[in-house]
Design goal:
Length: 320
């Protein structure tokens, strides 16, 4: 009898390893399809359901998809999908109480999910530390001081963390809050135009870090401020978006951006940890992105006379 009780307790406490339903929620975009295809391969013992949302999709559609597909777990790809799941969590509806989720391809997940107990994630931004130190390895002159515009209302903690990490490498990250004159787009644009210079306080910058932020990189600012400044300021612009180093944009000198297949593997690992090993997503938290790809616009590098290390440059994607 005692043996039976011990066995019963073990079975009750053992992680669930049976097939589950995983619902992936995203827009219909090539980058998201790559991540979802990777998820499907890694989680092949589970049933995958693909739900495509649009810009005008609302919360009721998200709930309808859950009722139709009855997922055990949800993969959230984009801020809109994350916001739907956060609302589901906040409403505390008993019908959906058991559903957990993991997110990526959404901005600022560390702050967005800091109070969530039902959503884990993989940060989609390549850390400033990685972008700057990877770029430093390609050139034969020091990187000592880097200008970094940011919005304090959203990215203050991220900036503090990046500044401390780079300080250990002997690099000063000079963060400039573009909201000092207000949060209106016009006020932000005025600050951006003034701050994009080669020096401040009599000290030169070695590079400018371009934020992955649609508010700072709004259409007007990108066209009338960022692009002209990138071509007049004799500094390398570093970013996290591959297309910004392309010939068509001719904007950034260097980009460090997510490698989507490893990103899919990372997200699948979190989902497996929750489904197969019974780990609560609250304990998984938000992991740093691991897989990164690098691109260098050689024409921009030549224009600003960057001294490149030939052996190192050969290891990155080159745009001529």
């Amino acid at each position: 009898m005692q043996g039976f009780i011990v066995t019963l307790i073990f079975l009750l406490l053992a992680p669930r390893v049976s097939a589950a339903t995983v619902m992936a929620v995203s827009f219909d975009a090539e980058e998201m399809r790559v991540v979802k295809e990777t998820l499907a391969k890694d989680l092949n013992k589970h049933r995958m359901v693909d739900v495509v949302i649009r810009k005008d999709s609302d919360y009721s559609e998200f709930v309808a998809a859950i009722r139709q597909n009855k997922p055990d777990f949800i993969a959230l790809l984009d801020n809109k999908a994350v916001n739907f799941m956060k609302k589901l969590e906040e409403l505390k509806e008993p019908e959906f109480a058991r559903i957990q989720a993991a997110a990526t391809m959404a901005l600022n997940l560390r702050q967005v999910l800091q109070s969530s107990k039902r959503i884990s994630g993989i940060a989609y931004e390549v850390p400033a530390f990685t972008t700057i130190t990877k770029f430093r390895s390609l050139i034969s002159r020091p990187i000592v001081r880097v200008l970094a515009p940011y919005r304090s209302s959203e990215f203050s903690s991220m900036m503090t963390e990046a500044r401390l990490q780079l300080q250990k490498e002997g690099i000063e990250l000079v963060g400039v809050d573009v909201e000092v004159e207000g949060r209106e787009v016009s006020a932000i644009n005025k600050v951006v135009e003034k701050m994009l210079t080669e020096a401040s306080d009599g000290k030169k910058f070695d590079a400018i870090l371009v934020p992955s932020d649609n508010i700072i990189l709004n259409k007007e600012a990108f066209r009338t401020i960022w692009l002209p400044k990138a071509r007049s300021v004799k500094l390398p612009f570093l970013c996290n978006i591959e297309k910004f180093v392309s010939k068509d944009f001719d904007f950034c000198t260097f980009a460090a951006y997510p490698d989507l297949v490893p990103l899919g593997h990372q997200l699948a690992e979190q989902i497996s940890e929750a489904l197969d090993n019974g780990t609560a997503v609250a304990d998984l938290g938000v992991d740093y992105l691991i897989g990164v790809q690098l691109s260098l616009n050689l024409q921009r590098a030549r224009t600003i006379e960057l001294p490149l290390k030939a052996t190192e440059v050969d290891s990155v994607k080159q745009v001529q």
